[in-house]
Specification:
The chain has 571 residues and is mostly beta strands. The protein has 5 helices and 42 strands. Helix content is 9%, strand content 24%. It has a 21-stranded mixed β-sheet, with helices on one face. A 6-stranded parallel β-sheet has the order 14-16-18-20-22-24, with no helix packed on it. It has a 6-stranded parallel β-sheet with strand order 32-34-36-38-40-42, with no helix packed on it. Strand 2 and strand 3 form a beta hairpin.
């Protein structure tokens, strides 16, 4: 995290410096004279009249008895008397439209109206603000198309229109804003292709276009923006391959192309091309080929997301050289499948990643024995997921060393042996998924110590003996499935306690006996209950009818009395 702060915050410092410099230009001194006929005063009042709701009363100072240069959020020039140079009103919850008269504030250098509920179109009159350096209109509800007249504001350094309802194409004329350092158009409804003219923005540091409906190929011309530190194009509909020219952007800290339709292979020397890279996310595309072994050269990497592609081959053995890595996900690929069964050898090197928190390799073809060294991963680790592979061996008891572990998933593998009782010492565990293996023995009573546990999936194994009643002690348990095992004995009534939080309870396909406890009626939140294919008997309790939230119920293939329909008729 320190590396993230030192690099990303370096860019944020530049952004902050831009805004501070603009404010300094505008607030060194203020006039105390009153000019009631001032154009700027009238334009400011028109802005106020466009506001329908002011929940915090921030505009209460905007009245004739106070000079407009002293109104909250308004700053005036010390050189050009009574001329408004900045309008800084961020996060006050204002509701209304932006008056076109704002275009009469011709000395305006900074306008920050982020995080309000402005609606309607962004006035074309803003194009007359030829001194404007910073325009921040993010997190509003502005509609219409990109205000083309903004491209006449040739001194713009910072333009953020993020998270609005803008649509249409991004005009090529944006490429005329040659001084831009920051361009953010994310989270809108822009369509069409990314304009090649953006490659003319040679000073640009950040280009954020995520969460739009952009399509087509990524322009080669973007490779000319050599100062670029952040390129975020995720959650669009972009196709084709990554242009080779982009690998010239050696200053990049964040390369984020996740959730598009990109294809081809990843440049083998990507780790050498981006030596400063911190974030590399190309997940949920159509990339093929091997994972580049050069990744380890990008020694500042914190986040690596390659999941949801078609990568093949081995996981690079030297990922452990990424000392700062916190998040590594390569799930949903075709990695592994080696004939030697050593696909998990890379885990050994990850022991060096002392800040690692997320390790996700679910749904691949990884083969080999689960190495006991996995218990020596960073004590900071929160999430381990190797589900749906071809891993054999046992769950190492030393897994209890990972004291901060919250999610542990080894489902749909070939694990054998017992569930180590010492797992009960992982007091921060929230989800334990070991289903679809060949585990045997008893369900450890110690799992009842996991008071934060919300999901326990142990179905489709060879577990036997009784269900520990203390599993029900967790007030956070929502999902419990132990179906398709060899469990016997009665259903502990503790599961149906007065404060039961359970939503899903699956005990089917075992050898459970006895009655369905009367306390089942306490499960007011229960959505799904499956007790089918056991040896339960007796009458169904009338209290079952109190489970009004239930949507899925299976009681068949038991020995319940015929009164079953009576108990269920009100459900």
């Amino acid at each position: 995290m320190e590396v993230v702060c030192s690099n990303i915050n370096g860019v944020r410092s530049i952004i902050l410096m831009i805004m501070l410099c603009v404010i300094f230009w505008t607030t060194f001194s203020r006039s105390t004279g009153i000019n009631s006929t001032s154009t700027d005063r009238l334009a400011s009042m028109a802005f106020k009249h466009g506001i329908n709701r002011d929940p915090l009363g921030v505009l209460s100072s905007w009245k004739d008895s106070i000079h407009y240069c002293r109104w909250t959020g308004v700053n005036c020039s010390h050189k050009h008397i009574d001329r408004v140079t900045s309008l800084l009103l961020r996060s006050y919850g204002l509701v209304g439209s932006l008056s076109p008269h704002i275009g009469n504030l011709t000395f305006l250098r900074l306008m920050d109206l982020e995080n309000h509920s402005f609606h309607g179109e962004i006035p074309l009159e803003l194009g007359g603000l030829f001194r404007l350096r910073v325009l921040e209109l993010s997190n509003n509800s502005f509609e219409g198309t990109f205000p083309i007249n903004l491209t006449k504001c040739s001194d713009l350094l910072y333009l953020h229109l993020i998270n609005n309802k803008l649509q249409g194409k991004i005009p090529a004329e944006v490429g005329f804003l040659s001084k831009l350092l920051i361009l953010g158009l994310s989270k809108n409804y822009f369509t069409g292709s990314i304009p090649a003219s953006l490659g003319n923005l040679s000073s640009l540091l950040q280009l954020n276009l995520l969460k739009n409906n952009l399509e087509g190929r990524i322009p080669e011309e973007l490779g000319r923006i050599t100062n670029l530190t952040r390129l975020d194009l995720k959650y669009n509909k972009l196709t084709g391959t990554i242009p080779y020219s982009l690998y010239n952007l050696s200053a990049l800290l964040a390369f984020d192309f996740m959730s598009n339709q990109l294809s081809g292979t990843v440049y083998p020397d990507i780790g050498l091309a981006f030596p400063r890279l911190i974030v590399l996310t190309i997940a949920h595309n159509r990339f093929t080929g091997p994972i580049p072994v050069s990744l380890s050269n990008a020694c500042n990497l914190v986040t690596i997301q390659f999941q949801g592609n078609h990568f093949i081959g081995k996981v690079p053995w030297d990922l452990g050289m990424l000392d700062n890595a916190q998040f590594i996900s390569m799930a949903g690929n075709q990695l592994g499948g080696s004939t030697t069964g050593d696909d998990l050898s890379f885990i050994l090197s990850l022991v060096n990643c002392t800040q690692l928190q997320y390790l996700i390799f679910e749904d691949n073809s990884l083969r080999g024995s689960l190495p006991s060294i996995i218990a020596n991963l960073s004590t900071q680790i929160l999430f381990i997921d190797f589900g749906k592979n071809q891993i054999h061996g046992t769950v190492p008891s030393a897994i209890a060393n990972l004291s901060n572990l919250q999610i542990f998933v080894m489902a749909d593998n070939r694990l054998t042996g017992n569930i180590p009782p010492i797992i009960g010492k992982l007091h921060k565990l929230r989800a334990l998924e070991l289903f679809g293996n060949e585990l045997s023995g008893r369900i450890p009573y110690s799992l009842g110590n996991l008071t934060l546990l919300s999901s326990l999936y142990l179905h489709e194994n060879n577990l036997f003996s009784e269900i520990p009643p203390n599993l029900a002690t967790s007030q956070n348990l929502l999902y419990l499935t132990v179906s398709n095992n060899n469990l016997n004995g009665s259903i502990p009534k503790e599961f149906f306690g007065l404060s039961s939080s359970l939503l899903f309870l699956y005990f089917s396909d075992n050898a459970l006996t006895g009655l369905l406890p009367l306390e089942v009626g306490n499960m007011m939140n229960l959505v799904a209950l499956n007790l089918s294919n056991n040896r339960l008997s007796g009458a169904l309790p009338d209290t079952l009818a109190k489970c009004l939230m239930i949507e899925y119920l299976r009681l068949d293939r038991n020995f319940f009395h015929e009164e079953i329909l009576t108990a269920l008729q009100t459900l």
